[in-house]
Amino acid sequence: MPTILVEVMPKPEILDPQGKAIANALPHRGFTGFSGVRQGKRFELSVDGEVTEELLESARTAAAEMLSNPVIEDVVSVTVAEDL
Amino acid sequence: MNDFNIDTVTNAADTPETELPWAELGLKQDEYARILEILGRRPTAAELAMYSVMWSEHCSYKSSKVHLRQFGEKVTEEMQKDLMVGIGENAGVTDLGDGWAVTFKIESHNHPSYVEPYQGAATGIGGIVRDIISMGARPVGVMDPLRFGDIDHPDTQRVLPGVVAGIGGYGNSLGLPNVGGEVVFDSVYQQNPLVNALAVGVLKHEDLRLANASGVGNKVVLFGARTGGDGIGGASVLASESFDDTKPSKRPAVQVGDPFAEKVLIECCLELFHNNLVEGIQDLGAAGISCATSELASNGEGGMHVELTNVLLRDPSLTPGEILMSESQERMMAVVTPENAANFEAVMDKWGVEHSWLGEVTDTGRLIIEWDGDTIVDVDPRTVAHDGPVYDRPYHRPEWQDRLQTDTFRSSAAGGDLPASAEDLGQAVVELMSSPNMADKSWVTDQFDRFVGGNTALSQPDDAGVIRVDDRTGLGIGLATDCNDRYAYLDPYRGAQLALAESYRNVATAGAVPLAVSDCLNFGSPEDPDIMWQFAEAVRGLADACMELGIPVTGGNVSLYNQTAGRAIHPTPVVGVLGKFDDVSRRTPSGFQRWADGQAIYLLGTTRDELDGSEYARMRGHLGGQPPAVDLIAEKTLGEILINASRDGMIDAAHDLSEGGLAAALAEMSLRFGVGSRTSLHELCERDGVDPFTALFSESQARVLVSLPRSEELRFTDMTTARGFPALRLGVVDAESGGIEVAGAFQDGSFGIGLDELKEAWSSVIPSRFGGAAA
To answer: What start-end ranges are recorded for coiled-coil regions in this protein (chain A) (predicted)?
Structure first.
């Protein structure tokens, strides 16, 4: 079953409190060498059957209008994965 | 380090012909001319950024200043008795006694909350809380007066859940109880929701801090979150249009808050105050570093020297103008003596707060900002912070005002066929209580933490939020916010006074002595003379009423341009009143107590035929006529009665009559703890010369319903008689019946409403629209 993957990230210029908290925590656990962390999210939209161009377009629209908040987030990618 | 050109002062002097995008930054032609005149040359890009944002309506109060002066002029000695810091600082400070002081302020975050409801409402809380911190106080509570469009409008469906979740998300994370506020629905707020936020803090007298940069040679430090592109509206114009067209021109206008960073900032600041490590402090809100540097400098010795490249950035591509205008949250600026610098740094390290030393205080009378050694700002800070344009905008009474005021409820079609039979009146009460504005708001308030900290003595739905300040003595405060925008629309002068009267009454009903006022004046465009008249009238009304009640306005906020497509909101002067308890254990709750079976119910005050602008009229789709009469002397006497009754333990419940009149007050007092009542309107109708319908739904002011044990009746009525205040026994608390029974001069006996039925109707309204949990 193919899956459409949607990746959403906070806009680069927007504060990302979660990423900041993780960035602060990393060195405390001995993970040094990372200068920053930003945390986004990934959606997996399962599809029964074939991923048509229409379906992909519909996923892109859903990503832009519903899965992300266009005021503070960017849709980074909408891709198809065959065997997840 | 950056790929943009730096517009230095020298460069500005050498290139007078360079066109700057002042209009895009919101400056008017004459305002820009004034800047040219002040500087004697064209401003640099950074200077233009500073002036444009500091001279905006939001920061400069340029349209409202001439009217707001009345709050400082119409004052008596009595009003200043307890006042430690008045209008003009981040928030006013009032003496509480025992070495304690209290500071509170209300602000608007209307527009950001419309654009991005969650973050807008969240950062509204964050901003007002930092105002409180910068006075040297520990924040102890917040309140949110909220106004949305019609409950069934899609806009409300989008905005309300986000706003409620944002307030909860930020306030709950900070560990601050949210002890009250309002939720109002009216189609005038569609696309213009009002999200106001009030914060209150307490401090010991010696911890008081002010925003001034004193002491030549003292260091200026920025601490807290890093500076990013948040909230930059106009500065993007500078970035993209005049210097570098290849940069991403669309900077976000939305700030994102981080409540956990703010919590650390609160504790860190309190430690700085406690150890006496800062000379002056200012929070960074609107206009960010522009505001903090120019205000600190002009309130202190008059000069400051800052190296802007020292600012820690989240986004290294920001231009100097953008850095100056950024509204990144959770930042503070302080002035520290060189001797204290090491200790200051130790506190920063302890709390893990980033800081950067930006420069120092000077006595040159100039605010100098450098970028890597090149001077990019050289201004008199007063011209930026205080000497902005002031407009006495034209205003006149709208030509439709008279027509509106003569269209009374009684004379309208809606007021023609009023319920008169017991059955119809009973149904009308249920209908009233299940209308969106009277319905149970716990779907909203349950998402706020009302009791965190363990010092909340009363909160929504009681008349006032009550917070204990000193657990040794029980010293505490009571707070309420109110505004009936329909009254203010019918008559802005009286409407503002009625907002104050209700807020005052709510605080006194809980048992607190009213001390101070903070106001959030939400209006449409000041460029419309009709709207400007509403504003001028409301301010005049509020200032007059404050003088009569003897409590000062200690601070507040003005929010103008609340209109979309030429349609303005109703004038909405939200008024917060703060009161004092010697001992919060004496507070009076708003509901009949389960153990109070058989207690007497008294109505204090006089009922007149005042239905214009009422909730009943709203239910019938009518708005016109004159708002209820204002009687501030009666409000004051009533307040004294309630405060004494609470102090002497005479009454066990008290609730003020406001929207929905006696019908709503009776219903709310029973719904609070599920305890019914039996009352009769006979005597009331006879004494005040009104019919049962008017007795139930009129919104006459200066009225309160109380319940008291029979053993206290004589003492209580002696007190009301001695003060010449009308008090009438309406009936008794009935804990057994499970219903509200009202007898009266009806055509057909009495009506009874089962509490279960009423509760179902009252509590299902909001959940049925917004579902289980907020988004």
So the answer is: none
